Structure formats: C-alpha cells, structure tokens
Amino acid sequence: MITRCKFVCNSVKKMKGWSGVSSFLYEAEFTAVSQGSEENKSFFQYTPSGHLSVGTYKEDVFEVGKEYYLDITEAVAASTAAT
User: Fold this and answer.
1) Rg of the chain in Å (alpha carbons)
2) The model's pTM
3) Which of 14, 31, 41, 65 has the lowest CB atom count within 10 Å?
C-alpha cells in the first residue's frame, strides 16, 4: 500500500556541515498542504497536519514555497522481498 502526502517547503536553512562529508548541510522544513488549490483542499481532508524535516548536502534540492509529493511505502527487508 502506498500513502501519498503533499507538503509545501517553508524554509531551507544552511548550517555548518559535520563528519567531514561536506562544508554545509541544508535542512528543509515542510508542512502538509492545506490551501491554494482544489487538489490541496482534497489532500487536507485526509492529512490535515504533518511536519517533515529533511537534511541534504546539496544546496538546490528544495525550494521555499514549492509543493512536493511524499509517497510512503513499507520498507521490506531484501531477504523477504524475493520470497
């Protein structure tokens, strides 16, 4: 089963990186959509709230004000997926 959510990016923060992987870490903050289109109103009926925080080493992955879909599926272990 797949659950599709729709989020809007509210902010992207640039922070000093860690672990020697990158100079910077970009943290994007999202909330579930609630208005702006008929589709968003429909999503709001089924997912009226939600908060998501995502970190990436790449700068231009997410843009403030843009909307993104998030599809959630169960993670099945590789050993059981083939059976």
Assistant:
1) 16
2) 0.77
3) 65
Question: Structural domain tally of the chain?
Answer: 1
The amino acid at 79: S
Q: Write phi, then psi, for 36 (nearest 5 degrees).
A: 110, -25
Q: Which residues pair with 53 in a beta bridge?
A: 29
Walk across the sheet containing 3-16 and list its strands: 51-56, 24-32, 3-16, 67-72
**H or E element in which residue 4 lies:** strand 3-16
Partners of 16 in the β-ladder = 24
What pLDDT digit, counting tens, does each position of 57-67 carry?
Answer: 888 999 999 99
